[in-house]
Inverse folding.
């Protein structure tokens, strides 16, 4: 096991003269007349540790096994490096090859790859420079999210992966069943849970339970959508962060969402600058400008009605026509953020008919206290609302959705929350992978999650 202080990222900061042991995988090996140079990395740093092996230190047959992808341990002394980009290099005293990688067979050495050809190599792509950078950012982002909520006193709640309710009312859910393993396929009462159950699409409803006991809570876990979508923005399995706050209205919700996004960007900029510089160089030249703009300026806040008016005045031939009552599409969201305001935009007060049943009805009878946070290049990155805390209003909304398959008896506990100590409350959801796309500049959501689940793809 690599001990703290002995990762490559740590060794690169150590002083010449220290005796250390480096472990990792070979990126490249080049040979001089009397010396071999090995670039070694353990995934902790965008910069490799250069290992210098003098000719004769190990037999030629061992050197021959040190090819791209091989796994090594090297003990030796850190010395000042004459090369650019590194202060020290490791002068080897002993070297062990733990696992070779036949250069004739190793996929990452056989040919050049792009992001698309690397996707079928999910067992190896994490060793590349690009995915090393992406997944280090992903780790830093997860840490930043927990830090943001924990320092504000939020309680972390593990929402169930298996659920009997559809929080979104969308109907695109994976069924959880033991039918086919001795249980008659049509007899739900004899299934494992004795009722229809699904992989969750959201932890929101369960988070509301805890918000009405702990005031401020958040969930962070996998969610699932059974949509047959093969687009750069959709996955069947993805991660959601869903805070829920009691004593909170729509304005408070907007304030928290803005602070949340800014905090994430600030922390990742601080912790992952070398990785972001690599990604900016190869994938998104405007990456730093986009991230720094988000941090620097207050978000624009407009109503849905104002947004529709602005889009109608844009003089554009939209692929999806803009009318009051229709949902905003990606082209509309990007126009608002990239061309009109040139910064993130929060749109509030959407038409009731295009939003979920649990959103609080506004006094106008036409809109609900909903919000979407839009950012350049991505569009919607956060969606949320003030929840409907009035028991009778919520009950009537559920009844009005009966034609969509919603049953009042399925939400008995959700209604009871309004009867026993109910209070105004609000929350939002942020797609973790959408935020990763924004932070890294990657264009396809399959390239910011370790193991993408899409139609026809569950290999790893």
């Amino acid at each position: 096991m690599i001990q703290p202080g002995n990762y490559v990222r740590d060794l690169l900061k150590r002083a010449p003269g220290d005796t250390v042991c480096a472990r990792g995988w070979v990126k490249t090996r080049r040979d001089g007349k009397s010396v071999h140079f090995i670039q070694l990395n353990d995934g902790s740093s965008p910069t490799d540790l250069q290992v210098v092996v003098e000719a004769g230190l190990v037999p030629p047959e061992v050197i021959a096994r040190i090819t791209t992808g091989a796994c090594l341990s090297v003990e030796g002394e850190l010395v000042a490096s004459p090369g650019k980009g590194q202060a020290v290099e490791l002068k080897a005293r002993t070297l062990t090859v733990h696992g070779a990688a036949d250069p004739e067979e190793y996929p990452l050495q056989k040919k050049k790859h792009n992001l698309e050809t690397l996707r079928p190599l999910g067992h190896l792509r994490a060793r590349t420079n690009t995915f090393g950078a992406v997944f280090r950012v992903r780790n830093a982002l997860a840490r930043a999210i927990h830090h943001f909520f924990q320092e504000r006193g939020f309680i972390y709640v593990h929402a169930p992966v298996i659920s009997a309710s559809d929080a979104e009312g969308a109907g695109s859910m994976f069924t959880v069943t033991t039918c086919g393993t001795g249980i008659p396929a049509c007899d739900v009462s004899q299934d494992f849970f004795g009722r229809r159950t699904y992989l969750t699409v959201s932890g929101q409803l369960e988070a509301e339970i805890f918000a009405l006991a702990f005031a401020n809570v958040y969930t962070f876990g996998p969610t699932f959508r059974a949509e047959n979508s093969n687009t750069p923005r959709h996955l069947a399995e993805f991660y959601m962060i869903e805070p829920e706050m009691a004593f909170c209205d729509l304005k408070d919700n907007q304030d928290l969402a803005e602070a949340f996004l800014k905090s994430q960007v600030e922390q990742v900029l601080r912790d992952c600058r070398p990785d972001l510089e690599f990604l900016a160089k190869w994938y998104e030249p405007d990456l730093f400008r986009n991230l720094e703009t988000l941090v620097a300026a207050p978000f624009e806040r407009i109503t849905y009605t104002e947004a529709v008016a602005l889009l109608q005045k844009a003089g554009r031939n939209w692929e999806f026509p803009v009318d009051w009552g229709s949902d905003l599409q990606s082209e509309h969201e990007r126009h608002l953020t990239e061309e009109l305001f040139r910064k993130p935009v929060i749109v509030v007060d959407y038409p009731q008919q295009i939003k979920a049943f649990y959103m609080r009805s506004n006094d106008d009878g036409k809109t609900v206290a909903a919000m979407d946070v839009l950012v350049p290049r991505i569009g919607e990155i956060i969606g949320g609302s003030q929840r409907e805390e009035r028991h009778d209003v919520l009950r009537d909304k559920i009844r009005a959705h009966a034609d969509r398959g919603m049953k009042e008896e399925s939400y008995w506990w959700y209604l009871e929350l309004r009867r026993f100590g109910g209070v105004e409350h609000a929350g939002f959801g942020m797609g973790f992978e959408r935020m990763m796309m924004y932070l890294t500049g990657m264009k396809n959501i399959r390239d910011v999650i370790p193991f993408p689940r899409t139609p026809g793809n569950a290999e790893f």
